[in-house]
Inverse folding.
């Protein structure tokens, strides 16, 4: 059956990637996107060979294009290490593309699970998704640390430019053989952007928002996060939240972890950098699989996003694919990168037909899995040691099954 293509009024930025994800990324486009959408794509090849060939300029250009067009959809990419330097004969050990893009967009990363009724969860009480936002700037990740070898005074000194009061604090007086020291920072601008992105995400989802800190111990440092979030909420979001029947609340990190464990989900959790690093993996495992986890970079302007899968390039499967072997790689998170990006495009453009298509494609993915058709990683969660080949589809078979389910839903209604 031929389908009338839905016109997408404005462009989207596509960032291609590496290895196994690049392979099925093309299949997703060919089988699930292009047959149904009339789409203007601004294409950037972020595969490692092209990043090397362009001296990583393509990554910067893709981020700048995202700021122009407001929607980017990204395939997983390799961040090179020493082994990759040799494998690809690279000119340089290029930085993480995600880090480069995040710095240019000044965005906050929000991760959220995709729930399927037949995929068991380690925490069965989580019946609704929990969306976790990680403030990906500063703190321990930009800290300066040192090993202290012997007695002496450790100081924290701030020297202002121009007029202003110098800060000179004695941190600790080492009297023994020494120890360790650490100095870290964050900025009002970055915390404000984090607050705006978090509140915008919660408002769009119509979910309550919680910020977690340890302000009882770090009264000034974490207290600044708490104060800025409260200021942003009072100034820009309180009336919108109340009208939508949702709320913002600050909680201590230990209280929040306990609450998360016993809650049924259905909220946005804004975390400082380290907390977000740790708790996002806790959530992914609790919900069942990184292969069922979306990742969206949200900018403080409220209209610019970059959507991707939360997992990597699936190198182990790619090695099998290179040798002509059969793979069963889960493409759901990458399909959801397309749906989340296109859904945002639909909202910006006021395009209800496109929004309906994205909802039907997501429903088709979930419906396919819930009908018993899935890739090996998900079948393993269900069947464990009793897993056999009949329990799962290969990479292309799964995408074909989703395409078949999508066509049925495009003729009928979109609900699961």
């Amino acid at each position: 059956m031929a389908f009338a293509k839905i016109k997408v009024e404005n462009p989207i930025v596509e960032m291609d990637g590496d290895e196994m994800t690049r392979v099925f990324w093309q299949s997703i486009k060919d089988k699930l996107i292009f047959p149904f959408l009339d789409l203007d794509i601004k294409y950037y090849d972020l595969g490692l060979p092209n990043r090397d060939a362009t001296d990583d300029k393509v990554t910067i250009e893709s981020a700048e294009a995202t700021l122009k067009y407001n929607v980017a959809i990204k395939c997983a990419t390799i961040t090179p290490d020493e082994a990759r330097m040799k494998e690809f004969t690279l000119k340089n050990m290029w930085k993480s593309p995600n880090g480069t893009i995040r710095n240019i967009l000044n965005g906050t990363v929000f991760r959220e699970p995709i729930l399927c009724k037949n995929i068991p969860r380690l925490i069965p009480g989580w019946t609704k998704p929990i969306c976790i936002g990680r403030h990906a700037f500063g703190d321990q990740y930009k800290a300066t640390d040192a090993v202290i070898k012997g007695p002496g005074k450790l100081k924290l000194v701030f020297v202002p430019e121009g007029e202003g009061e110098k800060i000179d604090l004695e941190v600790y007086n080492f009297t023994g053989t020494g120890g360790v020291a650490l100095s870290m920072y964050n900025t009002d601008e970055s915390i404000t952007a984090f607050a705006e992105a978090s509140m915008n995400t919660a408002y769009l989802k119509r979910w309550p928002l919680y910020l977690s800190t340890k302000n009882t111990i770090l009264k000034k440092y974490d207290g600044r996060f708490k104060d800025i979030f409260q200021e942003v909420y009072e100034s820009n979001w309180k009336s919108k939240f109340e009208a939508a029947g949702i709320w913002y609340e600050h909680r201590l990190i230990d209280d929040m972890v306990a609450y998360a464990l016993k809650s049924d989900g259905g909220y946005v959790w804004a975390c400082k950098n380290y907390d977000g690093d740790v708790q996002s993996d806790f959530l992914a495992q609790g919900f069942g699989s990184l292969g069922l986890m979306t990742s969206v970079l949200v900018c403080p302007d409220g209209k610019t996003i970059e959507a991707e899968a939360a997992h990597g390039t699936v190198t182990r499967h790619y090695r099998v694919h290179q040798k002509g072997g059969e793979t069963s790689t889960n493409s759901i998170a990458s399909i959801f990168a397309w749906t989340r990006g296109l859904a945002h495009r639909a909202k910006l453009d006021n395009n209800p037909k496109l929004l309906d298509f994205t909802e039907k494609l997501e429903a088709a993915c979930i419906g396919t899995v819930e009908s018993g058709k899935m890739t090996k990683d998900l079948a393993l969660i269900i069947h464990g040691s009793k897993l056999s080949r009949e329990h799962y589809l290969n990479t292309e078979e799964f995408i074909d099954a989703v395409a078949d389910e999508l066509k049925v839903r495009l003729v009928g209604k979109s609900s699961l």
